[in-house]
Amino acid sequence: MEYSHEDGELVGQPVGYWTWAANKTLMAYVRGRLAAIGITQPQWWVLHQALHSEHGVTRDELISALQANLDVGAGLAPDIDLLVERTLLVPDAEGRLRITDEGRALHRRAAETQRTSREHVHADIPDEEYLITLKVLQRMIHNAGGDVTQR
């Protein structure tokens, strides 16, 4: 791989720029792959929550559970509505949303898409390097006054 700068110059590059560039590129990649199978990333998150909720889940519970995911918050309502319209989620008698068989099938496809996307993005990156990268980023977040304990 060819890097943007020599090591001496690269060490002086702003981490904010490179984390932004990585986020922008990776989000476009992941969202594009999910779109190819007919689901958005927030819809994938909602289906995942519903799948793992034994007694169904309310809209408020979904929004609360996912509000920290890339600042989605209340913006999930249209995604939830679309999943209900597509009968991937259906409300029970108490209004709790449950995943349907069709929703489970799409969830499986999305999970496989996510797995292959991760493999592609992580190619030639040993777990040790990945771990170091995340720990360095978490230390930087901490140093800047952020809280990494709730992520």
Rg is 19 Å
Portion in strands? under 5%
What's the average pLDDT? Answer: 92
Main sheet specs: 2 strands, antiparallel
Q: Per the principal axes of the C-alpha atoms, what is the gross shape? A: elongated
Structural class: mainly alpha
Low-confidence segments, ≥5 residues, pLDDT <50? Answer: none
Strand order of the largest sheet: 1-2
CATH architecture identity of the domain at 30-121? Orthogonal Bundle
Termini separation comes to 31 Å
Helix fraction by DSSP (H/I, runs of at least 4): 55-70%
- The CATH homologous superfamily of the domain at 30-121 is named Winged helix-like DNA-binding domain superfamily/Winged helix DNA-binding domain
What attributes characterize this protein structure?
WH-like_DNA-bd_sf; 60% helix; elongated; WH_DNA-bd_sf; Arc Repressor Mutant, subunit A; mainly alpha; Transcriptional regulator; two-stranded antiparallel ribbon
What order do the helices and strands come in, and which of them pair?
Layout: H1 7-10, H2 15-35, H3 41-51, H4 59-66, H5 77-85, E1 89-91, E2 97-99, H6 101-121, H7 127-143
Antiparallel strand pairs: 1-2
Helix pairs in contact: 2-6, 3-5, 3-6
Outline of the structure:
60% of the residues lie in helices and 4% in strands.
What does this structure look like?
Strands 1-2 form a two-stranded antiparallel sheet. The longest helix has 21 residues, at 15-35. The model has no long low-confidence stretch (mean pLDDT 92). The chain starts with 6 loop residues before the first helix and ends in an 8-residue tail after the last helix. The protein has helices spanning 7-10, 15-35, 41-51, 59-66, 77-85, 101-121, 127-143, and strands at 89-91, 97-99. The protein has seven helices and two strands; from the N terminus they run H-H-H-H-H-E-E-H-H. It is elongated and about 65 Å long. The chain is mostly helical and 151 residues long. It has a domain at 30-121: Arc Repressor Mutant, subunit A.
